């Protein structure tokens, strides 16, 4: 596949050119941004079992990481502060290392069945306060640390993206079996996947067993 290169004459390179393509921002779209977590934002957060957290390193390299847990896993410490438990993963620590270098983060809260989402922007830090961590235990397992976010911007995001994507509509669900398994894809991308189907099934089963044992 030939590498794509944008034609400079069709590249938008300044804000004035960008805004000329769109109409004026609706007044409510501007005014809806809040500086703290009101009752509605807190209620949304307490219902959410899934968030995406966006971070950047010191050079501006961006990363987005999914975080999921039982409903309400993100704790509202006060109107300006959230705490997110860090559960076992692959130990790449991309988000955590980025936060140490650049504390600015963006969060997207998602609730299954809801088409609207909640966006929260702020400054993050990493803590291992035993009192907070113990309050986030699941199956008697305590996280090693938590991401604490000092909130500076909060607003609800409209439903258009979820409506367009039909995300929650079962008629639009796709069959995971139409693509290779996660293990096979990673092996294809790295050391090479085994050609033997039985060996591949064993590797897939091992991943499922690892999920079962190390989810928390």
Automatic annotation (TrEMBL):
PANTHER family: FAD-BINDING, PUTATIVE (AFU_ORTHOLOGUE AFUA_6G07600)-RELATED. It comes from the Bacteria. Residues 38-158 form the Pyridoxamine 5'-phosphate oxidase N-terminal domain. This is Pyridoxamine 5'-phosphate oxidase N-terminal domain-containing protein. It holds the Pfam family PNPOx_N.
